[in-house]
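Lab notebook, bench 4. We co-purified these components, and the gel suggests they stay together. Before we commit to crystallization screens, I want a quick structural picture of the whole thing.
Request: model the full complex, all chains together.
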Amino acid sequence: MIPLPRKSSNRVLYILMKYLFQLALIFTVCLVGDSISPLLPFTFPPSVISMIIMLFLLLSGALKEHQIKESADFMLSNMAFFFLPLVVGILRYATLVQSLWWQLLVINLVSLFACFVASSWTVVLVKAIQNRVGRNKNV
Amino acid sequence: MSEVFSSPLFGLALSIFAFESGVWINKKAKNPIANPLVIAMIIVISVLLLFNIPLESYEKGSSIINMFLLPVTSVLALSIYRQRKILMQAFFPIVLGTFAGAVAALTSILVMCRLMGLDQQVIGSLLSKSVTTPIAIAITQQFGGVPALTVASTLISGVGGNLLAPFLAKMFGIKDPVAHGVGIGACSHALGTSKALQIGELEGAMSSISLSFSAIWTVLLAPLFF
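Here is the predicted assembly.
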């Protein structure tokens, strides 16, 4: 990589270009994910495919963390911003949401409890089984 | 005046200012209910209604932000990658725990929607609600659901998980930090994870890995429930 220039105005440009290049890398991975999605025999969101490709590239070392770090961290820490337009779209369904608000609340809270109990107790159970198997091996 | 509002720059500028205000208010309020996204939504909707600006004008600019949804989700891979060591230590408990959580969430949502007599479009919008917003929306769009309903529901789950996380563990007798973290991540995604990080480092790491895994499980399992 080219060393960081000394003059501060050049430095800003250099950093800007670096971020743009990182964005371009991320976009390319997404473009691949987006074009694979319709080819699959089952429905799978392109965003999740892109995430899996990205994880595979990182784990295999083909893509290094520093090659996407700053841009990716920017997106991760400001994630909620990118959902704003979708949330504002609620305006289009205002009457639907108004007519459903208590059902939404009940469904969400009950399934929150169900999901928490199921997942946390499964972890406790799996860990207990693993401990027992591990102890048997040692004996 | 309407020409100003129909420029794509209007939607972009309004979104950025509204979100920045949301972040600022959130920092001042220090309360999970003061969610920056909710505050920004209220600001944007109020501006649109107050000045009688059609949603279509706003969406000319906001569609540029929508374009980033795919890359934003894909970089979640970086946060999983950073936690690969912890992931390897507790691989089976995480994978099986999030699987059980996804099945429990999907089943309970489907059963309750049916009991309340809600239609297929609403079910399609709610099934994905316990996973992180970008993936939840992708699932909803595949089912032809209403993304706005999904966002509202993921927010209720997230804020609910954030507020109830310490209480849930006590109520259901969970003492193990790994189990607690996985439980929070599986049911209330990133918003719950921010609380898990406050409870403890291990809980936080477990929660953020679990939110990715429960998202993948939900993507795979949700079509079976629709």
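Residues 109 and 123 of chain B are 8 Å apart (CA to CA). Worth comparing against the SEC data before the next meeting. Chain B touches chain A through 102 residues (CB under 8 Å).
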